[in-house]
# Entry
Amino acid sequence: MDSFEPLRAAGLDVTFHVWDEEEVATAIRYAQQRRSQGLPSQVPYFWYANVSKPADHPTYNLSQDVTQEKTPRPLDSLVSSIALQIENRQACYWKIWDYIPGPVHHEFFCHYESLDMLIPNLINYYCGESTIINDWVVPLNRHPELNPRRVATIIVHARPTTLTKLEKHQTNQSHRDQMQWNRERCTRHAFLRQYLIIKHNSDPTSQLYLRRDCRAAWIIPQSD
# Structure
């Protein structure tokens, strides 16, 4: 639990899950048995902790970052869920995922090789700031699934378009995604084709639509 001390030092709340040692041991034995038989077996994880930012934190909602919902919520109010790999208790994943099936624009799912690799990203999510890239205010701190280098590269090649054309493209893509989902029954990576709306640092009349897999970026006039 010492790995979480930097979170507490940053003023964040950490709540640990109570789990049964026998249940964990049973899951380990089951996974090992399947592997010994040459059968496929997912590495088991267990819910380990929740991390949140208290409303009385001195920087709570200072950035005014909110969700892209009909009734926006401060991103600082969202709760992070951490799961640990059962067998070595090192590898972990972090998710913010409220919607079922989801995901929506503020949700993500990230894997890390260790808690030590995860912790700085958690602190940056709740206490960091957006990054200026080519004069666009990119919320890399709120989207740990984004690769900063790929984001910078695709922004350089962003092209102008209209919102009507982009919405038509998204509708066609959604139909293809739904067909793929029907085949695979998987929503884990569905968020990658969503677009994030990014503000310009000095031009309030322009917005950048960045696809979350960093494969497309479009510049759209806000009045369009």
Observations:
- Residues 181-186 have pLDDT under 50 and may be disordered.
- The longest strand covers residues 45-52.
- DSSP finds five helices and eleven strands in the chain.
